[in-house]
TrEMBL record:
Low complexity: compositionally biased ranges: 337-347
Entry similarity comment: Belongs to the DNA polymerase type-A family.
5'-3' exonuclease domain segment(s): 31-287
Catalytic EC class: transferase
Subunit and partners: Single-chain monomer with multiple functions.
UniProt-listed GO biological process terms: DNA-templated DNA replication; double-strand break repair
EC number: 2.7.7.7
InterPro entries: 3'-5'_exonuclease_dom (IPR002562), 5-3_exonucl_a-hlix_arch_N (IPR020046), 5-3_exonuclease (IPR002421), 5-3_exonuclease_C_sf (IPR036279), DNA-dir_DNA_pol_A_CS (IPR019760), DNA-dir_DNA_pol_A_palm_dom (IPR001098), DNA/RNA_pol_sf (IPR043502), DNA_polI_H3TH (IPR020045)
Region named Disordered: 314-347
Protein name: DNA polymerase I
Length: 969
């Protein structure tokens, strides 16, 4: 078993041939179903998602590559009887005559995209798909017209687009399909988006307008207000007729003053379903592409990998449909099969080695040439196959090696008889010939530990832990490179870093799915029972892909200015985290049981109190019953029903009610917290205590977050509440071995120190330099108080805004946190920025950098890519801007503590200390230390942590120790 991400379906001409059997409406065969693809949406998604690519003659083709991949992939998934891709023919349409400012602010297409428009239309024709466009009309109008015409024949219509403007077309015979999420959009989804049924969407859009298209709308009216007004008055004209009677003065005046603009806006957003049809409906029948034409187009663009995957690269099957292999995984997060490198200019190589066939190595004599080839090459790609994703309990099933692109092998070690057909044999099936683990490890150990041969792995920490536990002392693999971390060092937050996704993105190759070789569901078999030919094709491909990724990505580290980050921090973290995970931390099971019993008794008491407040017993854990108590029976304000009609009772709802002074929801919140802690940490931790050593061994994910932070799973030890009594109780269950103590070292206010470092805030720097209480100093500054006049409330407010400002907190957020009005909160924020203008300047600089480049950087240069910074939707764009503000502080803090972690083992060894680093929880490190070495270890840890980076303010580590984690704080 290997740690791979989900895979994307591939395209074959066989899938297209199947679709060609479809019948026209009115004949026998499949029910008539027209699929209309919003081609313009695909073009721009492909262009912006993929980096620059050029074909052999220098013509840019990144959008062509992405569009071609998407179209081919789509054709194998969604087979209708009729199909067309619809494009915009020109920028000027009949809407410009209605309103000359319509889309007037849209920039011209990028110069490198312009020559790709015609190529994309050629790609559509090469796939045998109808290409629809018409001067004077937008693609959306043609989609509306074809949907109406086809629906009139009794057929069903699916529109492939996530464009909100097309939601007005949704009805029983017409649905949308979101190409990113691969989910249908029907009336419930439209209602969720606009608050009205599809037939009222244009009325809502007419009121709300659309800044993206320069649709004016009525100033001051957004989607929610528009939906409420249309629901109340029926349609736009009914609302405008009733405008003089509307009570709200501003709303009334806006509707009266801008009534004509609203009518114009409705004309602009209403799609013309009577637009001329450039081609008759019957001509849209799905037909298989001509292999020669499609192959010629792909060859002309230099898309060699695509030719190979589709069986059109000149082999015996090039003129006929190849045998299709089942692939079932969903599309990537962006909806794109993105094969190109993230920023480098990529041209698919015409002479790239094929992926396979690979060799199965079953004896030492056959392994020797591979070892010799690796030594000669000086580099070896390595991957393990195991029987579990838990590296600390997994058994080796096999090892794969690659010494050059296309040259890879698989060494089976624990393969049993292939399961398929075994039950039909009269005699018990025998395992296939293979080496024992001891034989293979003995042969490979000198190579894997040879400092002159670089070992390349993907998610190396997993393989290192497996190999460390191998029989006869294990294997200490070194030196190494990790392609997952190479990618993460350059592109944190930009995309995932799983091998499959990177292969598709950078190599244009879709690896064999795990489900294809093991099956799915109840039919799934262990990898050790997969036939060796299939196991070899799958496992050796992993090593081959890893080596090719290393060749593609490693050179980019220098040009992307990520080499130092990778070499000095991320790569060195592999061995550090391996040792921490292998060590684990001891848990007192008896103490956990006592905590669980206490939580259970307190939950019983709380239930009785809740029932008394409710006036009757009910299931406190049932959101439905709780909602009925709160909003149907007690008539508390603020209730909202969900789609299914039940009242919402999530934490935000209960916290709002509790803040208004209602006791029942406050106690339910406390009950829920105890219930979660009991199930997640009391019962969950007890189940994860390793019986072999009485310790829990968390798994640190190294390339998951967008900011560079580590995350902890199985169990998650980073979400235990810090400041609650219950969280402190749970921490006391983590204990030291006899004769040892736990030592906790925590960076003090690290993100605020980074804020003072990055922004021009002399007073905050001075306060940190003098060791003053930073929140009291902030309170004195912004509230204009003498330092000795700062009371607890002023300090609380200052602390809230100090931390909130790093997260882009709004006046409403601050008001909710402090229990004050939005006006007063806005006054505090204004005073804060007035006193510290450098902070506001830094926040604006970060947002501008993100909008311009797509990323922000930490103080140490790591790029953190910000998703959604250019989004049309204001809410998504606002979230992205807040992420852009916060990312450098979280990312900078993560990098500082990682730098301390990679220096810590050597520093402890140099000091002659035997302390072990066990956990990292955000800004805290936890050590297990012999009692006699506590003071020396504390001094060493403090020196490393406080000296790991030079900022404009001093770093400070607060250190404590005790018999358990709770006492160490």
């Amino acid at each position: 078993m290997c740690c791979r991400t989900a895979r994307v379906a591939t395209t074959t001409t066989e899938g297209l041939a199947d679709a060609a059997a479809a019948q026209a409406p009115g004949t026998t065969g499949p029910a008539p179903h027209l699929i209309l693809v919003d081609g313009s949406g695909y073009i721009f998604r492909a262009f912006h998602a993929l980096p620059p690519m050029t074909r052999p003659d220098g013509v840019p083709v990144n959008a062509v590559f992405g569009f071609t991949n998407m179209l081919g992939q789509f054709l194998t998934r969604h087979v209708g009887t009729h199909l067309a891709v619809v494009f915009d023919a020109s920028r000027v349409t009949f809407r410009n005559a209605i309103y000359d400012q319509y889309k007037a602010h849209r920039p011209e297409a990028p110069p490198e995209l312009v020559p790709q428009f015609s190529l994309i239309r050629e790609a559509t024709a090469a796939f045998g798909v109808a290409c629809i466009e018409l001067d004077g009309y937008e693609a959306d109008d043609l989609i509306a017209a074809y949907a109406k015409a086809f629906e009139g024949t009794g057929g069903q219509v699916t529109i492939v687009s996530s464009d909100k403007d097309l939601m007005q077309l949704v009805r029983p015979g017409v649905q949308l399909l979101d190409p990113i999420k691969q989910k249908p959009i029907r009336e419930p989804e439209v209602f969720e988006k606009f608050g009205v049924t599809p037939d009222k969407v244009v009325d809502v859009q007419a009121l709300a307008g659309d800044s993206t298209d320069n649709v004016p709308g009525v100033p001051g009216i957004g989607i929610k207000t528009a939906a409420a007004l249309i629901t109340e008055h029926g349609d736009l004209e009914g609302l405008l007729a009733a405008a003089p009677q509307i009570r709200q003065p501003k709303r009334r005046e806006a509707l009266i003053a801008h009534a004509e603009l609203a009518r114009i806006s409705k004309k602009l957003v209403t799609l013309d379903s009577d637009a001329p049809l450039p081609a008759p409906v019957d001509s849209l029948l799905v037909r298989a592409p001509e292999p020669g034409r499609l192959a010629g187009f792909l060859r002309e663009q230099g898309f060699r990998s695509m030719l190979h995957r589709m069986g059109l690269d000149g082999d015996a099957n090039a003129d006929s449909a190849p045998v299709s292999r089942p692939r079932h995984a969903p599309a990537s997060a962006t909806g794109l099969p993105e094969p190109a490198a993230a920023t480098a200019e990529v041209t698919p190589a015409a002479d790239a080695a094929p992926f396979g066939p690979y060799e199965t190595v079953t004896e030492a004599a056959a392994l020797a040439p591979w070892i010799a080839a690796a030594r000669e090459a000086g580099v070896l790609a390595l991957d393990t196959e195991t029987d579990s994703l838990d590296a600390l309990h997994a058994n080796l099933v096999g090892i794969s090696l690659a010494v050059a692109p296309g040259r890879a092998c698989y060494i089976p070690l624990r393969h049993g008889p292939a399961q398929a057909g075994a039950d039909l044999l009269e005699e018990a099936p025998k395992p296939p010939p293979q080496m024992t683990q001891d034989e293979a490890i003995a042969a490979l150990r000198p190579l894997l530990e040879d400092p002159s041969v670089l070992k390349v792995l993907h998610n190396a920490k997993y393989d290192l832990e497996v190999l460390c536990r191998a029989e006869n002392g294990g294997v200490a693999v070194a030196p190494l490179d990790d392609t997952m971390l190479i990618s993460y060092s350059m592109d944190a937050g930009r995309h995932g870093h799983g091998m499959d996704e990177l292969s598709l993105r950078h190599l244009g190759h879709r690896p064999i799915p795990y489900d294809e070789v093991t099956g799915t569901g109840r039919a799934r078999i262990p990898f050790g029972q997969v036939a060796l030919d299939k196991a070899t094709a799958y496992a050796a491909e992993d090593a081959d892909v890893t080596l090719r990724l290393w060749q593609a990505l490693k050179p980019r580290l220098r040009t992307e200015r990520a080499l130092a980050l990778y070499e000095q921090v991320e790569r060195r973290m592999v061995a550090v985290l391996r040792d921490m995970e292998l060590a684990g931390i001891k848990v007192d099971g008896a103490e956990l049981a006592r905590i669980g019993e206490d939580f259970s008794q307190r939950m019983v008491t709380l239930e009785k109190e809740i029932h008394e407040l409710a006036g009757k017993p009910f299931n406190v854990g049932s959101p439905k019953q709780l909602g009925e108590i709160l909003f149907d029976e007690q008539k508390l304000p603020g209730g909202k029903r969900g789609k299914a009609g039940a009242w919402g009772t999530d934490a935000a709802v209960l916290e709002d009610l509790a803040a208004r002074g209602h006791e029942l929801p406050r106690r339910v919140l406390h009950w829920r917290q105890l219930s979660k802690l009991k199930s997640t940490y009391v019962e969950g931790l007890a189940a994860q205590i390793d019986k072999r050593d009485g310790r829990v061994h968390t798994d640190f994910s190294m390339a998951l977050t967008s900011t560079g932070r580590l995350s902890s799973t199985e169990p998650n030890l980073q979400n235990i509440p810090i400041r609650t009594e219950e969280g402190a109780r749970i921490r006391r269950a983590f204990v030291a071995e006899p004769g040892h103590v736990l030592l906790a070292a925590d960076y003090s206010q690290i993100e605020l120190r980074l804020l003072a470092h990055l922004a021009d805030v002399p007073s905050l720097r001075e306060a940190f330099a003098k060791g003053e209480d930073i929140h009291s100093r902030t309170a004195a500054d912004i509230f204009r108080l003498d330092p000795d006049k700062v009371d607890r409330e002023a300090r609380r407010r200052a602390k809230t805004i100090n931390f909130g400002i790093i997260y882009g907190m709004s006046a409403f957020g601050l008001a909710a946190r402090l229990g004050i009005g939005p006006g007063e909160a806005r006054g505090i924020i204004d005073a804060y920025f007035s006193q510290y203008p450098g902070i506001l300047e830094e926040m604006e600089r970060l947002k501008a950098q993100a909008r311009e480049t797509g990323y922000v950087t930490t103080p140490f240069g790591r790029r953190l890519w910000i998703d959604g910074i250019q989004a049309r939707e204001q809410a998504r764009r606002g979230n992205a801007e807040r992420a852009a503000i916060n990312a450098p502080f979280q990312g900078g803090a993560a990098e500082i503590i990682k730098r301390a972690m990679v220096r810590m083992p050597a520093a402890l060894r140099a000091a002659g200390l035997s302390a072990r680093m066990l956990l990292q929880v955000h800004d805290e490190l936890l050590f297990e230390v012999p009692e006699a070495e506590v003071e020396a270890t504390a001094a060493c840890v403090r020196a490393v942590m406080e000296g790991v980076a030079e900022l404009r303010v001093p770093l400070k580590a607060e250190i404590g120790h005790g018999a358990n984690w709770g006492e160490a704080h």
